[in-house]
Protein 1
Amino acid sequence: MRSLIILSVLMILFVSEISAQAIEFSGYGGYMVSGKSTYYDGRIDVYDGGVFGATLGYDMGNGIQVQFLYNRNNASGRVDYYRSVITESYNFDLILEHYHLGVEKTLGGNEMVKPYAAMSLGVAAYTPKNIEPSGHELDAVTRFSMGAGLGVKIFPSERIGIKLQAKMFMPMMFSGVGIFCGTGGCGGGSSFYVPIVHGEFSGGVILRIDK
């Protein structure tokens, strides 16, 4: 599934390059703050940890940039199983990856300082490792997710810049889909909830190439 997503994104970006005014590549690192997710018979606590990633963006004019984002968080966590009380607990390491396609919008500024807002959609891949005590299993999980953030880019030169940003990533758990009919006709709907929010605080270097 991840390979199909990456291939689809690369095809979209290849087509977008035809009308792009500039290309931006950035690499960054920072810190990701996570939290707890409670489910029917237990709780998962994902600990905070370092994050690194990269973005590839295509300027489309009017301060709008189409962007592909990848980041990776190497963290650890804890699972508690319980009904009325905690009955079993164990620890694990976790690889959390986001693959997102989104839009970044410049919010005023000038050629040197460019504040921006960003929104994106994609998938979050959770891969547990090194579960202790041994004998327990946790499945790798991939979920649709959405992201949003604010930041600022600073360009002391025409091609090289730096950026500082704060973002949040929210995996989406779809809880139901329904179709209903009444006197006014038929319709449908779906619902989802966000089990956990990941907050990213990071900074990095930008390479900009004007076409």
Protein 2
Amino acid sequence: MDTIAQYYSTIYPILKEYADLPYRFSEVERRLIVSDDKTHYLFMTWGYQRRRRVHGCIVHLEVVGDKIWIHEDGLEDGIADDLLRAGIPKEKIVLGFHPPEVRPHTGFAVG
């Protein structure tokens, strides 16, 4: 199995589970959007909460070469822990939301 297919089979079920959780307190939708080439994963939310518009990216992952870049991570416990539990090694995960000079100190890949 190639890298992109392997990562898809790991990433998609994790994010789909989050996207399927009901949002009980307002008219907010959650959606998982995957690019056609399966290299970008966006977990988005939009709608209205107490008459106020909500729209944003909760998680943005990108497969670059043999690594998973986490560009945005708005989950309470972080998507990196889910990826680790699914068997993705730390050296294959880049915390792209950290500046390049901080990444060597995270214990994850630097890029």
Protein 3
Amino acid sequence: MHIRPLHYLAALALACCAPSAFAQAAGHHTLGAGLYGIAPKSDAGTILAGTTPLEVDNGFGASLTWEYFVGENWGLETALNLAGKQDITVDGRKAGSFVALPPTFTVQYHFNGSGNVSPFVGLGLNYATYFSESGDGVLAGTDLKLKDSFGLTAHAGIDFAVGESSAIRVDVRWIQMQPDIELFDSKVGSLDIDPLFYGVSYVKYF
């Protein structure tokens, strides 16, 4: 993931000129929508008794979020994260592809919740389901399936106020995704995808 400091400084300067953000107090909620880059971990596991290493390519995705504030600066967030089609490779050769839908459920704390610039952190759980799997290349003709998985998730970012009831959010979300791999209904290995979702979203306060 490449960070561009000048872009972040420009966003920070704009946010500091904006009016105060809507107070993040009990009973309020937010809706958000964003676009994200997806960076899986570099070593994604093995198949065939550990003899064949796997990789998962980077991708792009989108996210819809809803957060309900249970106290000042404390929120419960549900995020519907959708990853676009990603390729599985073996020694640089395509072996398959899949689409992932890993919704997350996170408890979050917002620092400086009523300010123009509000960092936050969160920790929670995810349930990931996989569809549109296909075996290609070296696995062409196989019935490739990825089993649903559960895992942890962590979330961190900064909200930059835009007016009194909305914000631009820059954030990163780590999602623990480790599905079993099946070929013809038999487990042959597992994927340790564990991706980072990083990007920008628009958040509306209510």
Protein 4
Amino acid sequence: MKTIECQVADISNLTPYVYKVMLKPAEQVDFKPGQYLNLVMAEDDKRAFSIASAPSDALIELQIGAFGEDSYAMQAIERLKTSESVTIEMPMGNAYLREDSQRPLLLLAGGTGFSYIKSMFEHLANTNSERPVTVYWGLRSAEAAFELDKTKAVVESLPQATFIPVAEQADGQWPGKVGLVHQVAMNDIANFEAYDIYLAGRFDMVGIVRDDFIERGAVKEHMYADAFAFI
């Protein structure tokens, strides 16, 4: 782990409640797809956010969902908006992409957990991976989606890859599927034994997905999520 100063290069809205933050590190820092960083607010206040960019990118991208004026995430956004530079600690986390495996990949995320899997599929595209990849992104509503066309293009640039957005609520214009994301995955895939599975989202959701997928053959040793350290 390194402590690094970063210039706040840009902050923009992906949706009214999701912010895209671009950081320019003062030095080269190596990390693995799927790791996260700590934004240092104070010595005793360090806030964890998944890295959405691929390791080869010049800038570090974060996608931060922030609700409420004084929430954990909004406090971080306000710090980033009012600072020319910030301090981060990285890399963090053990639920990173296992590149020595050749098993098919299942990347599944809910909400802004998307940033965790985005780092992975962008890295796979950058390295011309030939592994089979299925990407599921679950959202409460179609209005919460962003960069769908861009994501579809990146994922489907891989030779054996599919991107499936899933909304719990959507109208007839929605380009993906409707329902709970992991239940849609279970409808699509009869048995998960062959897969390396990477999960991100609310801790309660990740726990449910883990248990349901194991009942469908998933191998616990081939399932990865930062949430597993807490549930």
